[in-house]
Amino acid sequence: MILYYRISNNSNKMDRLINSTKENCLSNALKHFQPFVESFNIIADNVTEDILYQFLLDIKDKYPNVTLEDSKLGNAGSFWYIFNKVLSLPADTQVYLLEDDYIHKSNSYKVLKEGLNRGEYVTLYDPNDMYKNYSEGGPNPFIEDGGEIARVILTESSHWKTSISTTLTFATTTRVLKEDFDIWKAYTGGNSVNDFQCFVKLRELGRSLIVPVPGYSTHACVGYLSPLHDWNEEVLK
């Protein structure tokens, strides 16, 4: 597996977990993935804080399988910079595209690998808005009666459900992204990204997206945490 990590200090300012700094989220990802992946590639997009950039340089020097590249492309541009890198890899290459505001639990790499044996797209993030009815103010129009229509499957370490959508943090293979290139280009190829509609369209075309329940990662935004876990405690481990 090859991991691509996008980091920027200019991302949207949202109410986040107290301890979910850029440095802590990256340290958490390194802990759970760096020892196992073939390469851990950091794309520093518009990183303007000297302290954060020095932290990235120190990380690069510490781990032989970590690379660091600078870019000034913005969210959509940096996503496509990585997307095109993935397209040049062998078709069976497993990739994990990871943003800079996620926290993972122990065993995340193993669980992610298990998921890739069952789904074409895999996320470890089970956001709590997937359990909030749209009719009662939830943001997802597919949610009713406290959840989404899904199939539940089992792997060695976890139950999983099929899901309608996720963020731009997910795992898949080069082959799948090559086959789905036109869909990704249509929904994320401009100056902004619409990952929700992209995954909805992919599902309509028969692609599978699966997520472990409970989740093995969370977005650090307070309003969208994966339920049933103390994530503030996790990021400090």
Ranges with pLDDT <50 over ≥5 residues? Answer: none
| Strand order, sheet with most strands | 3-2-1-4-9
Main β sheet profile: 5 strands, mixed
The CATH homologous superfamily is named: Spore Coat Polysaccharide Biosynthesis Protein SpsA, Chain A
Distance between the termini: 24 Å
Helix content: 25-40%
N to C succession of SSEs: EHEHEHEEHEEEEHHHEEH
CATH architecture: Alpha-Beta Complex
Helix/sheet category: alpha/beta
Cα-based radius of gyration, to the nearest Å:
17 Å
Q: What proportion of the residues form beta strands (DSSP E)? A: 15-25%
Q: How many discrete domains? A: 1
Q: Give the CATH level 1 class.
A: Alpha Beta
Number of helices: 8
Large-scale geometry: globular
> In the CATH scheme, what's the topology name?
Spore Coat Polysaccharide Biosynthesis Protein SpsA, Chain A
- Averaging pLDDT over every residue, what do you get? 95
Total strands: 11
